[in-house]
Design goal:
This protein is an alpha+beta fold. The protein has two domains: about 1-160, Beta-Lactamase; about 265-420, Histidine kinase-like ATPase, C-terminal domain (Heat Shock Protein 90, 2-Layer Sandwich). It is about 55% helix and about 20% strand. The chain contains twelve helices and 13 strands. The protein has helices at about 1-35, 40-60, 65-75, 105-115, 155, 160-220, 230-260, 270-290, 310-325, 355-360, 370-375, 385-395, and strands at about 80-85, 90-95, 115-120, 130-140, 140-150, 270, 295-300, 305, 330-340, 345-350, 400-405, 410-415, 420. The structure holds adenosine-5'-diphosphate. Adenosine-5'-diphosphate binds near residues 318, 363 and 368.
Length: about 425
């Protein structure tokens, strides 16, 4: 449980760090772009400076040399240069336009206010341009000199739009961060709920045998101890309930130990025959007592496994013990062990009572039992399959179950633990 929450916090932190990294990367990219493209201010400053030099040259050489000067300005600055007379006629243009320019806003603006700037799509090239126009007098006549710069696509949308985009991007990432926070909080709540359900289940499970023990002790004290046969029967029940308590506590401890692990400890190479041999000797008395035939079929290909030996024993015992518990006398339980790549496939099948389809999806849940009475009568804790599932997950394996009610059940556990010889 604690590990679960710890994992979640780690996931949350990793999530935030990732979001921040992506945000920083995005901001860095935009920053880089801002230097790659020029800002409106930069463009205007560059245009104004060019226009000044342009004007100074015209002033120096006179309007007769305008054609040569506009060509030089374009060559040096890469920007189109135009000289426009007061009536709008073009006195010189580096791109040889002859249209009247009087109605161009930057031209009329410059004649009115001395300087004007405009941005628009050019009729000639269909590209976006920024125009800077400045008025000046040459030989006593009024002229406007104009510089035109083709804009980068990002400048076309304008710096304001560009920042609006940035703002929207930041807003979207904040929304994503918020959604992830809300999702994580609901995950924490869900974990807390699972935890409190587990605690109440455990309490209930512990209380049942304890109540029974206390009841029989009280009855004994009230006089039943005098009747030797009855007393012995009661003591047997107390003994069974005490065993149940021990089994339950052992299972809870086992489960909580596996749950808090990321990978198993105590992993070593073992001869699989030794492990199966141990399991068989533990399981056989119970099988015999219940009149069940136990068969092991091990492929010779499986030889050495790398695992925590006790963990594998626990897994096999839980599956085999269930098959015996939920079979009828005269039944048969088979353990198959095969190799597939580096996977060892353990198949435990029985011809017992089976599990109805609607229960199949839930039997790996803690304390889930199809038939509570039968499970308890057979000493079940309701945790066996939950432990099996956790062991399988610990080794990144897989477990599946198939069952037909009244015909039998087959569990297949696949563990990537084979050591290639
Ligand atoms: P329990 O201690 O009750 O056996 P488990 O977690 O081991 O708990 O199993 C959960 C439930 O799944 C059992 O109560 C039983 O109803 C069902 N079950 C498990 N194995 C088998 C099987 N081989 N045949 C029929 N039912 C099974």
């Amino acid at each position: 449980m604690h590990e679960g929450r710890f994992n979640l916090q780690r996931k949350m932190i990793t999530g935030y760090v990732l979001i921040m990294l992506v945000g920083a990367l995005f901001a860095g990219l935009l920053f880089f772009l801002r230097f790659q493209i020029q800002t409106d201010d930069n463009i205007e400053a560059q245009m104004r400076l060019t226009a000044r030099l342009f004007g100074a040259e015209l002033d120096k050489y006179g309007i007769e040399d305008a054609a040569g000067i506009v060509d030089t300005v374009e060559k040096i600055s890469g920007m189109r240069a135009t000289v426009i007379a007061f009536d709008g006629s073009v006195a010189a243009d580096s791109q040889d336009s002859l249209q009247n320019h009087r109605d161009r806003p930057e031209v009329s603006g410059a004649f009115k206010f001395g300087e004007a700037i405009a941005t628009r799509k050019s009729d000639t090239t269909a590209h976006y341009y920024k125009y800077f126009a400045g008025a000046l007098q040459i030989d006593g006549e009024d002229y406007v000199i104009r510089i035109a710069k083709e804009l980068h696509p990002l400048n076309q949308v304008g710096t304001r739009l560009f920042f609006l985009g940035l703002l929207i991007a930041v807003a979207i990432s904040l929304v994503f961060a918020w959604i992830s926070v809300v999702k994580n909080i609901s995950n924490i709540r869900r974990l807390q709920q699972i935890r409190s359900e587990f605690v109440s289940n455990v309490t209930h499970e512990l209380k049942t045998p304890l109540t029974s023990i206390k009841g029989f002790v009280d009855t004994l004290k009230q006089g039943a101890i005098g009747d030797e046969a009855v007393a012995e029967h009661f003591l047997d029940i107390i003994d069974i309930e005490a065993d149940r308590l021990t089994a339950l506590i052992n299972d809870i401890m086992e489960l909580s130990e596996i749950e808090t692990m990321r990978g198993d400890k105590g992993i070593s190479d073992y001869i699989i025959d030794d492990i199966i041999g141990d399991v068989v000797s533990i399981i056989t008395p119970g099988a015999e007592k219940n009149g069940i035939k136990l068969t092991v079929r091990k492929s010779p290909a499986v030889s050495i496994v790398r695992i925590n030996r006790d963990r594998l024993k626990q897994l096999l015992i839980n599956l085999l013990d269930n098959s015996i518990k939920y079979s009828n006398p005269g039944g048969s339980v088979i353990l198959d062990c095969e190799l597939s790549g580096n996977n060892v496939i353990f198949t435990v099948s029985d011809d017992g009572i089976g599990i109805a389809a609607e229960h199949l999806a839930r039997i790996f849940e803690r304390f889930y039992r199809v038939d509570k009475g039968r499970s308890r009568k057979r000493g079940g804790t309701g945790l066996g399959l939950s432990i099996v599932k956790h062991i399988v997950e610990l080794y990144r394996g897989d477990i599946s179950v198939k069952s037909v009610e009244g015909q039998g059940t087959t569990f297949v556990a696949t563990l990537p633990i084979a050591v290639q010889m």
